[in-house]
Amino acid sequence: MNVTFIGLGIMGSRMARNLLAHDGIALTVFNRSPEAMEPLAEAGARTAESAREAVAGAEVVFTMLSAPDAVDGVAFGDDGFVEAMDDGALWVNCSTVNPSYTRTCNERARAGGIRFLDAPVAGTKMPAETGELTFLLGGESDDVDQVRPLLDHMGQKILHVGPAGQGSAFKMLVNAMLAQSMLVYAETSLLGEKLGFSRDFLMETLPNLPVTAPFLKGKAELIKEGDYDTQFPLELMLKDLHLLDVTAYEQQQPLFLAGLAKSLYGQASSAGHGREDFAAVFDYLDKPE
Ligand SMILES: NC(=O)c1ccc[n+]([C@@H]2O[C@H](COP(=O)([O-])OP(=O)(O)OC[C@H]3O[C@@H](n4cnc5c(N)ncnc54)[C@H](OP(=O)(O)O)[C@@H]3O)[C@@H](O)[C@H]2O)c1
Prior knowledge:
Layout: E1 2-6, H1 10-20, E2 26-30, H2 38-42, E3 46-47, H3 51-55, E4 60-63, H4 68-76, E5 90-93, H5 99-111, E6 115-118, E7 121-122, H6 125-130, E8 133-138, H7 141-154, E9 155-162, H8 166-194, H9 199-205, H10 216-225, H11 234-251, H12 256-273, H13 281-286
Parallel strand pairs: 1-2, 1-4, 2-3, 4-5, 5-6, 8-9
Antiparallel strand pairs: 7-8
């Protein structure tokens, strides 16, 4: 099967590598910064000079790009790839974007004779590397069935949650919880330090309590080491909180706490933590400067 993967950042590079490891998949890759293509080329992928060139002859095209503006430029811009896709080919957008934008992508793709699925992921750098992501799918069941064997190479769980846009909608909910749980944990731990508990004690005990979200075990390790190896960049969490805000506005559902969370991640990003892991919001709250 001819498959194309566009967007080789933290997540896309690992997902593409897992596809490449399987027989029967001829993989073409494209990334805006060409150096990201080199390790995949060495592992056997074909590289392309542009997104348009990358999709020629592909039955399935994956995108894993940072945000709606990036997807829009690469898919529909002057040199956009959607027009260059074969009739009836399938575009699977794994990037985290807002549901209303996803529905626009679906309409524009279908108007051009292309099938479309939204397939954002839950899981970060390590699950991407080990092929243990969870895919949150929106779209037609037949399209989900076609792409399922490919997703199985990159993930361990596939949740088909509704028509186009619903994968992105569900992803908004997941990241709303993720962003706010991180802040609650950071603030609570900092108060604990003021109350005389050591950071090591707090990072070892709090994550094991039933009141703490399970993902925070990993984040507590990063905080304890003071080393924010970037799994999910803080600036992308800020982007997701912005998309959540847009979505809440469109749905006329006020999200008071998520709005506050957006401001705090925004300030942490402005203070220089943008490309660190989003757990670095702990450092920002510890020393806001
Ligand atoms: N990291 C995580 O833990 C995680 C988990 C779940 C979901 N996600 C979502 O997955 C997506 C990718 O995340 P990531 O962590 O892999 O991000 P990343 O490392 O920052 O990579 C972003 C990718 O988007 C490309 N890009 C950005 N702006 C572009 C533009 N204007 N035109 C063309 N390409 C552009 C980058 O190309 P260059 O290399 O040229 O910059 C890179 O390939 C995001 O939507 C993120 O929210 C991430």
